[in-house]
Amino acid sequence: MKKIVMVSALSLLAIGLTSCRETETKTETKEVIREVEVEAEETEEETEGILERTAKEVDKEVNEEIDEEIDKIGNDDGQ
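Structure (tokenized):
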């Protein structure tokens, strides 16, 4: 009888200790990727290429030089 009480006490103690242990819990994480389209207003410089922008600068410089030469020559009206 003494053996049965000892075995049952040890088994209850073992069950009690194992149930108190922390068990690993698996948590699932899901990565959600959301694509969003953003419409940006394009400025004039963004729509033109580098050649167009360079050509405008050169035209501006040439026009300034032409205007200077015209001013040097003067007015042809005789005044």
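Helices lie at 2-19, 44-47, 50-73. The mean pLDDT is 80.
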